[in-house]
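cron nightly-structures :: item 1 of 1
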Amino acid sequence: MRFTIAIDGPAAAGKGTIARALARRLGIAYLDTGLLYRAVGARVAEGADPVAAAQSLTEADLARPDLRSLTASEAASRVAALPAVRAALVDFQRRFARRQGGAVLDGRDIGTVICPDAEVKLFVTADAETRARRRWLEAGGEYAPEPLATVLDRVRARDARDMGRADAPLRPAEDALILDTTELDIDTAIARALQAVNDRLRPRD
């Protein structure tokens, strides 16, 4: 059986946590597509050409320990705005999405561009203040290298870039279920996402 679960949304909305949980519970493959862009961004930060880095990306690049840093996150947003980089990574994502047994992918344009025919589409979001606070706490809270206000500025700037880019802007697919996690704990968010998946995949009479 082949089926695709596409999960999109802005940074720190919870889509990665939800996607990983769905993959574990359903026993299917998982791809954090943001890591592709983070890995390209990390190589660009080291002096590589963005398109060449995207074309030569390997699984070993996705295992780098520095891909969750704020620096890698910012670099990912910048290279993701380059149409040639996005084009170089599309085939990889589409092959992964249609693998035997099913797959869940999370990113920013999975349901709209990469897998518009995905059987299940979720758009996970939360307000900017909530997402910034989550990022700040992940980075150490009061011991984080940047104050909360700076993190919030970064989140808003990234939202503007991702939503305003000409190629594949961040937006929910027309048939996506919107899941707002602003007021939800993670267990409730996962439960709602799993229910949505089961509803979409359940055979119709």
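cron nightly-structures :: done
The longest helix spans residues 148-164.
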